[in-house]
Structure formats: C-alpha cells, structure tokens
Design a protein that fits this description.
4 copies of one chain form a homotetramer.
Chain A: H1 13-21, H2 34-47, E1 52-56, H3 59-68, E2 75-80, H4 84-87, H5 92-96, E3 101-105, H6 114-124, E4 133-140, H7 151-163, E5 168-172, H8 175-181, H9 186-189, E6 197-201, E7 211-215, H10 218-230, H11 239-249, H12 253-273, E8 278-280, E9 288-293, H13 295-303, E10 309-310, H14 319-326, E11 330-335, H15 342-353
Parallel strand pairs in A: 2-3, 2-4, 4-5, 5-6
Antiparallel strand pairs in A: 1-7, 6-7, 8-9, 9-11, 10-11
Chain lengths: 355, 355, 355, 355
C-alpha cells in the first residue's frame, strides 16, 4: 500500500528490458545514435509536428531550461503559487535564468485562472527598467493537485501570453496522466492550444529516468542545446534515455500505464467518497488523490502498512477546505502509479472503514 | 573496431541486470532508498573514510558542482589547458560558479607540473579586489591524454593548493582506469594525497549513467546538496544510479572492466609501436592511445571498418610531436573500453601493417 | 511645487562645495585616500562601533550587495511585497545573488509585522533541498509608504531572523529621514536592535551620488569587497563620494536636511488633513505623503504647476483605502526634499482648497 | 611628482563648476532630465551618428555591460592577455554575462594582432555544444601599455569579428588620449572602422565619475537598459554625470586635457630616452610611459617625492624587454594626467640624471 509518490515506484519491466536490449554494441554518444534519432522522430509523430527534443536528467532541469530559453534581464515568469517550479525546485529556475523571477499567483485547484493571468500580465506589462518585464508563463498539467486544465483554458491562457509576446510553458511531469484522462491528443493539449514548451516526463510513469524538454519553436532549439550542455545535462550515453522512451511509446505503453494509475486514483477516490471517515479535497483527474481525515484514521492506515504523506494546505485553498482541516482533521496525499493494484486499494479502504 | 570513445560502448550486462533486478517494488526517492544508503556506504569502504556521495547525471555536472562548492566572488580555478573542464563543457564550471574563471596552464602529457602550479599560484596569490583570487585547482586522472599523475605528484600539487587555502579537485571520468593501471588504492590516490573532491565516473567504464561527486569534507556536503538540487541534478529515482554502482562495485567489476580496457590499450599501443606506419604520441597509462600516422593509413583503417577520431594537437605539446604531425601526418585518438576485443585490435593492426 | 521624487532635487550647496574643494591635487584611488579613511571613521563614530563602509553608485547596488553577502544555493530572502527591492530594482537582488529568491509578504503601512515574519520564517525554516532555505530578511526604513518601524519592532524582527540564523538588512534609502523623525540614534536603530546591514542612502537627501553599504559583521567585509568590485561598483575616484559624505556629516547637515524635508511633509500632510478635498492615506513619519483625492483636483494642481505621481494602490492596503480609491478617487504620492519650501506647500494647499 | 595613476588626479575645475551649476532646482531622475538628453545628443554629434548612451559608475561596469549584451550560453569573448577586463576587473565580465568566458590571447605592445585574432577565431568558430562558441572580441584603445591600434588595424579586427558574426567592443578608458594622439575622428576610430560598442571613459581624464557605454546598434539598446538597471548601475540623479560630460565636451575640453597629458607623456618619455639611466619599454602613444631602470634609481626618485608603480612584466613581452629586466633592473609605469606639469617632469628627469 505505497501511495507516497509515483517516484517511489520502480521501472516497468518493458523499460528495463529495453535498457538491457540496447546495452550491447557501440553507438554514437551525446544524442548521435540511431536510437536517439528514432525516438526524436517518434516524438514528432506523437505531437503531429516537427519537435525538438532535449533529454535531461530531471523534470526540474526541463522546467528550468524552458524558462532559461526565455530569460532576459529583469525577466518575470508567472506561475501558480503551489507549482513545483516555485515550491520544490530549490531555485533552479532562478539559477538557470541568471536571476529571473517567478511571480506566484493564486488559483483554485492548483490552476491559474484566465482572469488572474490576464490581470497580472496587464499589471506587469508596461515595460520599464524598474519593475522588470514579463518573460514567460508556466502551468502544470496535470497540476500538483491532480486536476487538469481543459484545452479551452490552455488556449485562453496561451492567448494572453502571446498578446504579451511571451511563451507558455507546460510542466508535464504527469503529462501522460493528463492525456490518458482527457479526450484530447498531445498536439491539441500543447501546440495546437498555443503551448510553446513542454517538460515531458516519463519517470513518474514507469521509466527510471526519462525526461525531455519538447520545444515547438525551431529558432530556440539551437540556444537550448547550448544551455543544456552548460547545465551539465547532456548525457554521453543519451541512447539509454532513448531506449526508455522507445519502449515507453511502443504500443502506447505510456498511455496504458497512465490509464492504469488514473483508474487506481478513481477507485481510491471513490473509496474515500463513499467512506464516512474521509472527505475528498479535490476531484482527481489524474493519479493524485487529496483527502481529509482524522489523524487517528491516518495513523491506523499507517499501522497497517499504508505509506502516504500528510500534506500542507495548498497556498491557494477554498474556505471549505480550511474549515475541514481546522476541525482537527488533516489533509493527506495519495499518489497512485503503474504499480498500484486494486487489491491494495481495497485493503486500504477496508482498513479505513473498519470501525 | 570501434575506438571513437568509451562513451560509445553500451552498458555491461551486470549493470543492466542490476537495473532490471531493482525495477520492481517501491523505494524512497531522492536518495532515501536503502540501496542508495548501501552504495554510499560502499563508497566509504572503497575510499577507507566516510565520504559524501552526490549522484549526478554527467561528469560535467560533477566537475562543475565541485568547483561551485569553492566558488567566491572573483574566484579563479587553475586547470590544464587541455582539460575537459575548459575544452569540452560549454562553460559549465563558469555557469555553476556564477562566473568564476578557469585559468588554463600548459603542461606536458596533459599534466600540470608541480613547478607550473607553484608559479601560477604564487603569481595569483596576493589577494586584491582587482585581480581576483584563487579558489581551486582541478586535475584530471587519468588525463585527457591517457597519462597518469603519480601519487607523489598529486601530493605535491595538493600541498601547493593547501598552502594557498584552496582545494584540489580530481576529475575522475576515468578514475577506474587510473586505479587499475597503478598500484595504489583509491584512498592513496585521493584524500591521502590531499585531494578534496573527486568526480567519480562510472559511465565510460560500463555503466550507462553513473556519475558521482565524492566529497571528503563534511562541512561542504550540505552546501553541495543544495547546489545539486538547484542544478536540476537530483534524480527522483536515484536508486537506479545506485543500482548501477551496486553492480559496478560487486566483486570489483569496476576494476576488472578498467583492467580490461587498459590491457586493450596496451595491446593496441604495442601494435602501433611495433608498426613502421605509426608513432605513439604518448605512452598510454589508461585506455586512450594517441598515435601519429598518415591520413592514407587512417583512411585505409576506416575503409575497413575502424572508427576513431582525428585529434587536434593538444594545446600543450612537445616540439617532437608537432614535428611529427607537421610532416604530412596526423594525430589520431583510439579509445578502448570494456567491450574492446583482442580480435578487433589484431585486425586493426593487421590492416595497418598490410603493405 | 515639485513633489515627484526626492531624487529630482539637486544637490545641496555644501555637497557641491565639498566636491569642488576636493577636486585639486592627487590622492589614492579605489578608496585608499585620506578622505576615504576619514569618512569611514566618521561612519564608525556615527554608528558608535567599528563599521565597514562600502561606497556604491546606487541604493539598488547597496541592497543587492547586502543580500549577496548572505546568498546561498536555494536561498530565500523575505521582503515586504511593496518593497523597493522587489518592485523597483529590475531583479538586481536576484542577479547579484546568482538566482536567490525574494519572497514577498504582506503588511500594513509598508511594514512587515512581527507575526507575519515569525510565521513565514517558521514555515520556511525546515531546511530541505526541495523548498530551498532562508537566507535573509530585508526591511525598509523609512518604508516606501513613508512610515517607520519602531526600535522595538526592529528588535523583534531581528530576533526572529537570528533565531533562524539569517541576517536582517535595512534598506535605508531614507535612513536620515527615519533618524530625524524618531528619537533614536543610528546605533539604536540598527545594530543595537540587531540589524546586520544598512544601505545608507545620501542621494535622496541632498547628495548627488552618495550611497554606502554599512556592514557590522567584520567577517563578511572581505567578501563584500570582492563582490562590490565584481559588480563594477568600486569607484576609482572614490574620494568624491567621500567628499560628499564628508560635507553631509559636517555639523549634522544630513539631519538638518532630513528634518527639513520631514517638516515639509508634516506641513503638507496637515494641509491635506485639514482640507475637505483630500484624505490622507497614511500618517507620514518621514518625507512621503500619500493622499487620496479626485482626479479633477489632481488635474487642477498640475495645471497650476504641481508635479507629483498618481500612485497605484500598494499591494498591501486596508479595505478603507481601497474603498476610498474605488469611489472615483485616486491615490497620489507627494515627496518632499531638502529643497521643498513652505511657500510651495502653502501654494499647493491653497490651490487644492480653492473651490 | 605624482605618476601612480590618472585615477589619482582630482577633477578639473570646469567639471566641478558644472556640478555646482546644476546643483540647484529639480529635474527628472533616471536619465529623464533635459541635461541628460542634451548630453546624449552631444555624443551623437561627436560620433556623427545616432548613438545610445548608457551612463554607468565605472569603466569595469561599461565593459561588463557591453559583453553582457552579447552573452550567450557557452559564449567566449577574445581579449588580450594583459587587458584590463581579464587582469583588473575581478571577474566582472564573467559575472555580468552569467558565466561566459574570456579567452586571452598574446600580442606585442598590448595589442591583438590581426593574424592572432584570425587564427583563434577560426579555431573556435566551428560551433558545437562542447567547446562553446564565439560571442565577442574586446580591445583596449589606448591599450594598457600606452600604445594605439591604427584605424586600419581596428577595421581588420572588426572584419574578422563580423565574419564570425560577433561584435567588436572597444574599452576606451583612455579614449580621449587615443583620439588626441591620432589624427582621426571618434567616428573613424569606432563605428566607421566596425566597432560596435565603446566604453567611453571620462574619469581618468579630468571628470570625477563619468563613464558611458556607447552602443551603435539600436536593437541592443533596450536590452542594455534593463541590464544596466539590473546591475544597480542606473543613477537616480543621472544628470550629474550628464553635467560632467556637458563640461567635458564644451569647447573640446576633453581633447585639450588629453592632449596635455599626452604631451606630458611625450616629454617624460623623451627625458627617459635621453637618459643613460633608463630604457623606454614602449614608445608611448597616449599618457602612459613604461620604463626600465635600476631599483636604486627608482628608490632615489621616490625618496625625492616621485610616486609611481613598479610594474610586472606584461604577460606578452618581447625577449628584449625580459632581458633588460632580468639584468637586475625593473619595469616601472608612469602615468601622466591633466594635472601633470612640465616642472614635475623636469624635476623628475633631473633627479634621475643626477649622478
């Protein structure tokens, strides 16, 4: 009953097999191998357009590189106040960009609203050397609270960004879960809706280390290649990242794995919803479930082997949620993964509901 | 007959098997797993002292992190003018350190001589805000030319550094080859000789991505952990780097692989030495062989399937070498690896010597 | 009737005379002159302790240098959300610190409250490599809204900082006004209350370019000297900054000038208070007066020669203030200076009150 | 007899008078005053083209800003190995550019030769992510050794730069001396010869703090304005820099002062040349004189009141010079300024030649 993080799940058998299969022989290094080229072409096929693909070692690196591609003196990037880039990356975006700023904004359910973005960008738009100037907006899909932006919302956010001549970046650490949950294609969710960069994560969804920055703007690609190398993020044996993605995309494994973890999250959330001992904090749209319950119940779950985190109230939260939590209960996060089983969920819910 | 780079070799079967073996189940992320802890302890055992181990994605990242741990305003790090840090890392050391400077010095055989280091450090030692100030020295072991520093040389270099209160860093991208070739322990080659940081590379020697910064100074360790995260270099599924090192160290696999590639380099260099069509540029002490021959011979080798690089004259080179090269011949680099076979070398030398 | 900014006032005659007086002859450069030494000693006398004084060209540079003296990977500095460092310095603090972050907090009257600081620092205190870690707090005295922290408040804020092992920096762009208004000594307002760095501004108060970073911590001084030079902030003819401060401190000119501008602000605020056409937004405690009035009245003042800025609502503001402003009125800022005359104020108020 | 540095000379009376004259009244800050605009127009007149002028506090800041305008990931700027940017700026260029590299090259008389630049740029031109890439070349006019580039040389250097699509920057800390000595216009010496940026120094030539970055490329100007502010280099009372330049250009004061100091350098160098106790190291073409003499003679001069520096051998130096110096003699630097008098020089030479 391991729900602490999808990072805690290992690697899918097919990913490991692919690594094994490509272990022998010799191949070009630093991205020059045939396998690297094949996978890059596969990304273009998936996104239905020619994309530039930059393998990096972590999602943090992908996010920071994307922002550094837009960096300028006095640059300001807008993000949600609960976003990974500002909460969990130790200042990597600021470091990679030479000191640009992240300006956090509030928003329900981990999402930046169209109105909020419009207001803050208008507020910061009049360029002058004192205030600094807009350089990018970054959103997370699926969000840190397990919710999703609709394609219409993404389009509207992108429009606002482009009116101000700055790009829209999508942190897709759980991009597969977002695609699997919704009924849209990768192209629709990204560049067709105006997204300029995607941090495409495979690690949380069954790879062991497969992260890529996807760049739809050819003119930025050369710059990024230097920025990546300068950041110590160019793998010599790059083909082993390629090998993971090769298996990841084969027969839509990536969507199968994400569909599974999403279904497990649904099953888990149903269990919580039907329990008198728990209250769902958000309606899950990917593989994260946030729930409010008593510390006593949490303790009981843990004593029976469940692993999960108590979670601080998001900086942006509804008054209902804070009321729930303030009454002696706590917020907890459960993350499902490709390795989560229905049996584990049944067991968890049974323990929860046992008097 | 693939001699272009040890980066072009794949991964050893035992490394891949270990990745496969550790794929299932759940484990702590970001270095918290039991396997991470086990491997960290193994490093301490190998170095015969408690070390701090920082897994990173590339040797460039390890080098840049080590230097950033010593960074200060106006900081100057001394390196060999043919070193990887200054020739092949796209400014990563400068970027990580917030703009510190690498000051290159000349030296025969890819090595900084004791006299040279003593002179340059004395020259730069009088601290004033105009010139800047010393912050570190970095050497490569084995060097970029396949040669080795002796333990006495390392001790003497470290003494000079410490007289000036700056640390000595060792870029050990081919550390295993250096240990396997010499008759000294990892402890002797490093901290017992005064080395403060080692970039410990496993990738070139049969891993697919296993690089670590080894820090002997406990006080610096906490800072480095933040610097690593800020650089997007903290793997979420860190245990898969640990899994590689676990197999790498098991039954001294690392030394066996390095011994093999060193022997292949010796065999290759013997073949060149005994040929009337080639002149060795350096006596190889690890797994790189530099040889001068005619472009016609190089072409013939390539036409028969050999893969290797023409190599520019090192910035530091003897007059003999430049004379050799200027007479219509070229310098070429051959790198052996754990996958190099005696058959390949025999075949290569036979082609070379065929009329 | 020039109330746009104290930066718009020229230089006091005695400052200019001192520049003229010290123009002839030769003297040591880069801070080595007798005059530099004399002024440094004078700073120590004023602050009643040995201080390190770093002349820089702007208040922005002083602030950014102070923060860079505390910089660390993942570093977070707390500031008020309306502070100059985050609103008006184009990311200089982030740039100087290599990408550290300013975390803005709300607070009435331009001030960080003790409770707010205590909460945010406790919130951010548990160090981990994901969130980053505290590195400093910076306050402004007098604040951007013309208000003052009491010595007790400063002490309490400093205590919280020191409990978390980070320094407290004071942006003293209008330090003279703060001292002149209150009944405390420079020592009491700073290091005796726990302040570690002061950006000591002379420019707004009658100098033409006289800014200094005052450092009470001897151990940091050497580092700052390199950081200043690296930032291109070490004047070759440093003695001309010294010449300004020399006159500035002579016979307490600095306090006389600040007292005058404070009195002018009081007179102006009295005028507003007694007018039925204006509402004071804050009780001024230095030389800035914020007032709410109708755009028609503002236009009339301008048509009659008054120069002043319409001001956006501070990010932190009371509901009363936003109510006032939302009813068709606007917030305006008036800044007095050593050149402001009672006649100008009388004239302004008369125009305001003329039906 | 003060020859230590032109930085040690004070300010010319007309400069101080102008500061005094513009002290009263109110004016726009941050470069918005009429005086700022007037001086900017004057720069355009002097350079016979529309230029963008950025006042900064030091020559180091001007140089670093110019290079940061060309910064890119992995960027490499070529400079002379004895240049101020690499010898005396504490890493400011690297800091401002986010870690770009200065690659020093040798050259007689403080000058980069056309052949040297052509070779190094061709060597570094093939862009790849490992080596980094060219971003700029910077030369000093007059050089640190008091010599001058001819207009033909500048044109040839600029052509090489532009073939590689990088700009040529001129560090003109002693630009006035260069113009006054040669028979060419500011336009000819700069943009008509292909120079893209000039650090225009007034401080060494009679101002107290008047430095400007001149940018001939309109497209870069907006970026530089943000970079300047971010570096804490935007003066609030910018008009006082303007006031200095206003007097500096009035009736060609700048050229008169430079002509004077150049003549004093000629007189001094004649004195050395005609003495049997001294050997000129370089033929001076501006206001610096380098001479070799015995330490005994130097001591005697100092005992009689002369102030000057012993100077290390330039990194680039002729064998003749090193022979001269190795024979128990030393190299010394004498700098003349607008305040140097013929009497002082006569006196110095008389003391030198007295048995």
């Amino acid at each position: 009953m391991y729900f602490a993080s999808d990072n805690a799940a290992g690697a899918h058998q097919k990913i490991s097999d692919s690594l094994l299969k490509h272990s022998s022989g010799f191949a070009g290094s630093y991205g020059a191998s045939d396998l690297d080229k094949k996978v890059e072409a596969k990304f273009s096929e998936i996104f239905e357009t020619d994309v530039h693909v930059f393998f990096v070692s972590t999602g943090t690196a992908a996010n920071a590189l994307a922002l550094s591609a837009s960096a300028k003196a006095g640059g300001i990037a807008i993000c949600h106040e609960d976003a990974h880039v500002i909460e969990d990356e130790c200042g990597a975006p600021e470091f990679f960009t030479g000191g640009c700023r992240l300006t956090p904004v509030a928003g329900d359910g981990g999402k930046i609203s169209i109105n909020t973005l419009s207001t803050i960008m208008s507020d910061l738009a009049p360029e002058n050397v004192h205030h600094g100037r807009l350089m990018a907006t970054t959103i997370t899909q699926a969000t840190e609270l397990g919710t999703l932006y609709t394609v219409d919302e993404i389009s509207a956010l992108a429009d606002i960004c482009h009116q101000h001549n700055v790009p829209l970046h999508m942190d897709g650490a759980r991009f597969a879960n977002a695609i699997a949950f919704s009924n849209v294609t990768p192209a629709q969710m990204t560049w067709r809706s105006g997204v300029d960069y995607v941090s495409f994560g495979g690690t949380k969804n069954g790879c062991w280390c497969a992260e890529a920055l996807i760049c739809f703007d050819k003119e930025k690609a050369q710059e990024i290649s230097y920025m990546r190398k300068r950041a110590g993020q160019l793998f010599s044996k790059s083909r082993f990242v390629a090998a993971q993605f090769d298996a990841y995309f084969e027969d839509d494994l990536w969507l199968d794995l994400a569909t599974h973890s999403n279904l497990m999250a649904q099953k888990l959330s149903n269990g919580f919803e039907n329990s008198s001992f728990a209250d769902l904090a958000y309606v899950p749209q990917s593989n994260e479930v946030f729930v409010v319950m008593s510390p006593a119940k949490a303790l009981k779950l843990r004593e029976n082997g469940a692993v999960f985190y108590e979670w601080p109230l998001p900086r942006s939260h509804s008054s209902e949620l804070s009321t729930l939590v303030s009454s002696g209960k706590q917020l907890y996060r459960f993350v499902t993964s490709f390795q989560t089983t229905p049996e584990d969920i049944n067991k968890l819910i049974n323990i929860l509901n046992a008097d």
